[in-house]
C-alpha cells in the first residue's frame, strides 16, 4: 500500500475536484441549497478513502480487463 497515493494523484484529482466543486457551487446558487456541495465533499471523501484499496488491487497484478465500464451499463444514474 502506498503512503503517497493522494500525492501521486494530485495532478489529476485537484483539477477534477475543482471542476466538481465549481459545478456544485453553481447548482447551489441556483437552488439555494447546500446539498450539491455536500454531495461533492462526500463523494471525494469516499474516493480518497478508497484510494489505498484501489492501489493494493492494482499492485496485486490482478487482471481487471474482464469488467464492464459503468458508463456502458444501461440505466446508470448520472
From TrEMBL:
It holds the Pfam family DUF6247. This is DUF6247 family protein. It comes from Streptomyces caledonius.
Amino acid at each position: 500500500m502506498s503512503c503517497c497515493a493522494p500525492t501521486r494523484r494530485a495532478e489529476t484529482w485537484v483539477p477534477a475536484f475543482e471542476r466538481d466543486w465549481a459545478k456544485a457551487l453553481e447548482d447551489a446558487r441556483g437552488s439555494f441549497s447546500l446539498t450539491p456541495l455536500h454531495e461533492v465533499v462526500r463523494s471525494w471523501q469516499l474516493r480518497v478513502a478508497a484510494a489505498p484499496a484501489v492501489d493494493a488491487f492494482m499492485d496485486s497484478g490482478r487482471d481487471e480487463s474482464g469488467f464492464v465500464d459503468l458508463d456502458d451499463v444501461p440505466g446508470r444514474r448520472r
